[in-house]
Design goal:
Oligomer: single chain
Distance between the termini: 112 Å
Strand order of the largest sheet: 3-2-1-8-4-5-6-7
CATH architecture of one domain: Beta Barrel
Strand content: 15-25%
Shape: elongated
Mean pLDDT: 86
Low-confidence stretches: 10-14, 16-28
Length: about 280
């Protein structure tokens, strides 16, 4: 019995002595595992951060590339605009259009629109450019038909504006049905027909919000007896229309066949709203 008790005592003493060492080793092992895990986590975190940085750099580079392309396109557009304006001024001066009363701005904007419509394939008759300069009095011959290729002024004549656009000067414009007002902007000429005003020419408005209702409003180029020097001398003002750009009756057989079937026809007025919002000029 004493022997057994003695053995038990020895066993307990050994366990007490061995336990701290075991705990220390276990703690070391646990600590090593924790360090390994922390190391692995740190590695993965660093890797993730690297991927995030690379992604942000690539996105920034892509955005920078898009911005650069956009900037280059804007520069190209401005350069092209300046080139077109320079050509317009050269033609304006070469043809001495200032002497005929045509506004410099009217011709510049007309030329810009003509070039844009030509490039987009809207024009089938690119030989002529017609301009109604409504910044002038209706007592002036303010419609100009220009031979683009040969740089010649083919016709200059009177043109009436809508009865509700003004008396001597047009200063109010509309795209609304039954407004009896003229509509600003670019048109492309269409086909001819004979109506109550004789030979007439259909025109289609290309400036959204300004003249794109022209066809349904029956806005056409036609001759009118009240657009003449006789009426001007008799009443002191030129006759007006329901919105059509009417010309002297004796000029219809010359002008309409020249400008029909897809040429550019432009009605100008120095309207800041129109210049800023024209779908043709700002396309």
């Amino acid at each position: 019995m004493k022997t057994v008790n003695h053995l038990l005592k020895i066993t307990v003493i050994l366990m007490v002595l061995i336990a701290p060492a075991t705990l220390v080793e276990g703690k070391k092992e646990f600590s090593a595992r924790a360090e390994n895990k922390a190391s692995r986590l740190a590695f993965h975190a660093a890797d993730a951060i690297k991927h995030i940085i690379n992604y942000k750099v690539s996105v920034a580079a892509a955005n920078s590339s898009v911005e650069m392309q956009s900037m280059l396109k804007a520069i190209a557009r401005r350069s092209e605009q300046r080139r077109v304006m320079n050509v317009a001024m050269a033609i304006y001066n070469e043809m001495s259009l200032a002497d005929s009363g045509l506004s410099e701005k009217a011709f510049e904007y007309a030329w810009v629109g003509y070039i844009k419509l030509q490039k987009t394939g809207k024009l089938h008759n690119t030989n002529v450019l017609s301009i109604c300069d409504f910044s002038q009095s209706s007592a002036n011959q303010r419609m100009y038909v220009i031979d683009v290729r040969n740089r010649r002024l083919l016709y200059r004549t009177y043109v009436a504006h809508g009865i509700n656009s003004g008396e001597e000067f047009a200063n109010s414009f509309s795209n609304t049905d039954e407004s009896c007002k003229s509509s600003l902007g670019f048109y492309v000429t269409s086909t001819t027909y004979y109506g109550s005003n004789g030979l007439s020419l259909r025109i289609n408005g290309l400036d959204r919000g300004f003249n794109d209702h022209a066809a349904r409003r029956s806005i056409v180029i036609h001759g009118a007896s009240y657009v003449s020097q006789r009426i001007l001398h008799k009443y002191g003002v030129m006759g007006t229309t329901f919105g059509c750009p009417a010309i002297p009756t004796e000029m219809t057989e010359q002008i309409i066949p020249t400008v029909k079937n897809g040429s550019c026809f432009f009605i100008y007025f120095p309207s800041k709203k129109y210049i800023a919002q024209s779908t043709v000029l700002n396309s």
